Amino acid sequence: MSWTARSIPDQSGRTAVVTGANSGVGQVTARELARRGARVVLACRSEQRGAAALDRLRSQVPEARAELRLLDLADLSSVREFAHALPFDRLDLLVNNAGLAAVPYARTADGFEMQFGVNHLGHFALTGLLLERLLAAGGARVVTVAGMAHVLSNIDMSDLAGERRYRPLIAYASSKTANLLFVRELSHRVLSKGLDLTVAAAHPGYARTELQTKGARLAGQPGRERMLRLAGDVAGSSPDQGATPVLYAATAPYVQNDAFFGPRLMGVRGGPGRAWRAPWARNDLAAGQLWKVSERLTGVVYPGL
């Protein structure tokens, strides 16, 4: 029988942070963790949308212990403020889920290309700022939501700002490669120090969420937006199905460092299984280089690593 959200072990006594928990896969992830007893922090950029998501969660899981905290991954000062204000001495689970896909060119508050800044640098900074609390928990996990789109592009270390040539989909794919390189390097560093922390990645396949259509909407391309929505209706899975590999990486027993999970059926649908990654997403040299660049750009240095 395939692993489903009903397979999640009891999460009582555990505290989880889920970024981008206001919709889609993030919302389902937060809901199912709360359903199994975890105390869940919904880390969202929009207070209005986050509050609406929290209300939905509480209506679906009346016994939930959940709260909303504002986090804008496109602004490193917001990331620092969120981490500083989080009122827990230990953290059992961090799900780096929030992201943008194929949006028009823009820059973050700190001047980074928006997709690289939000999808990778924001989460790199957040994880580093919460690392001591994750290590204090014992047996904690960090799960980063990557994507099969990484197969479309390696990361260009010489043009992280996308200034020479910006193609929205390729920039998104590069940011997903960055996610996997981050997971690889953090895993190696954790293992080399013998630390009790599991670092893994997951992707939802082609889930019917606003992530798939937001870029076209922001670009003012209603025809493309309709086409993407139709593709999701025909070939995509529900957010509940898309969240399953993420929940598996976050809660299933025996998950190993640097594991990557996704839907079993051609990486698009089905129960969770091991996901394939492109050779450039397994490049240890590139992972180390990206780590050093990320430290320099964010100013966040991981304590003890």
Please tell me about this protein's structure:
- Strand 4 (93-96), helix 4 and strand 5 form a beta-alpha-beta unit.
- This protein is 45% helix and 15% strand.
- By secondary structure, the protein is of the alpha/beta class.
- It has an 8-stranded mixed sheet with strand order 3-2-1-4-5-6-7-8, sandwiched between helices.
- The termini are far apart.
- It has one domain: Rossmann fold.
- The chain is built from 9 helices and 8 strands.
| Beta-strand proportion | 5-15%
- What's the CATH first level? Alpha Beta
Helical proportion, percent range? 40-55%
Overall mean pLDDT stands at 91
Number of domains in the coordinates? Answer: 1
CATH homologous superfamily designation? NAD(P)-binding Rossmann-like Domain
Structure summary, number of beta strands: 8
The CATH topology is given as Rossmann fold
Order of helices and strands: EHEHEHEHEHEHHHEEH
What distance lies between the first and last C-alpha atoms, to the nearest angstrom? Answer: 40 Å
Structural class: alpha/beta
Biggest pleated-sheet summary: 8 strands, mixed
Which strand order spans the largest sheet, edge to edge or round the barrel? 3-2-1-4-5-6-7-8
Protein name: Short-chain dehydrogenase
GO molecular function: oxidoreductase activity
Pfam families: adh_short
Organism: Streptomyces nanshensis
